[in-house]
Amino acid sequence: MATTEEVRTILRSAGLRCTPQRVAVYEALQHASHPTAEQLHDVVSQTMAISLATVYNTLEAFTTAGIILQLPSPSGCSRYCGQQQAHLHLRVSGSDEIMDVPMDLGQQIMQALPREVLSKIEDRMGVRIDSIDVQLSGARPTASQGE
């Protein structure tokens, strides 16, 4: 996990002011697994006065700056990921649960993406791909499925 000074460096590098609220929200996000804004608010408000609107605004600023990911869920309640290293997510069907795919397996999937197809996408769409975000979806097997 990042130290407070490292968090300040991350925020400054993204062109964001380092307010105590922003530092606290970022630190709380680093210690949670894909929390909602409300869950972050509950954690941060234990140590400082902060409104839910400030948490939402902070998360929006972080997402816009590209230092976190916003992960929409079927229920409409977004979850947030503060992990800086590129990785894959697995969304569990029928719930809002999101898990990180083990890094070694996620890297195998990312490395298997055909570079020539990515180049064709760039050429046809007139863009340069900076990053790739892959999300898997799956259901937990029921006891009858495992038999």
Question: What does it look like?
Answer:
44% of the residues lie in helices and 12% in strands. The protein has 147 residues and is an alpha+beta fold. It has two domains: 1-82, Arc Repressor Mutant, subunit A, CATH 1.10.10; 85-139, Dna Ligase, domain 1, CATH 3.30.1490. The strands form two sheets. A three-stranded mixed β-sheet has the order 4-3-5, with no helix packed on it. A hairpin with a 7-residue loop joins strand 1 (69-71) and strand 2. The N and C termini lie far apart (41 Å).
Structural descriptors:
Arc Repressor Mutant, subunit A; two-stranded antiparallel ribbon; single chain; globular; 2 domains; 6 helices; alpha+beta; 147 residues
- As for the CATH topology of the largest domain, it is Arc Repressor Mutant, subunit A
- End-to-end gap: 41 Å
Low-confidence stretches: none
CATH architecture of the largest domain: Orthogonal Bundle
Provide the β-strand percentage band.
5-15%
Number of strands: 5
Helix count, DSSP H or I runs of 4 or more residues: 6
Question: What do the pLDDT scores average to?
Answer: 89
How many whole angstroms does the radius of gyration measure? 18 Å
CATH class of the largest domain: Mainly Alpha
**Main beta sheet, described?**
3 strands, mixed
SSE layout and pairing:
Layout: H1 4-13, H2 20-30, H3 37-44, H4 52-65, E1 69-71, E2 79-81, E3 89-92, E4 98-100, H5 103-112, H6 115-125, E5 135-138
Parallel strand pairs: 3-5
Antiparallel strand pairs: 1-2, 3-4
Helix pairs in contact: 1-2, 2-3, 3-4
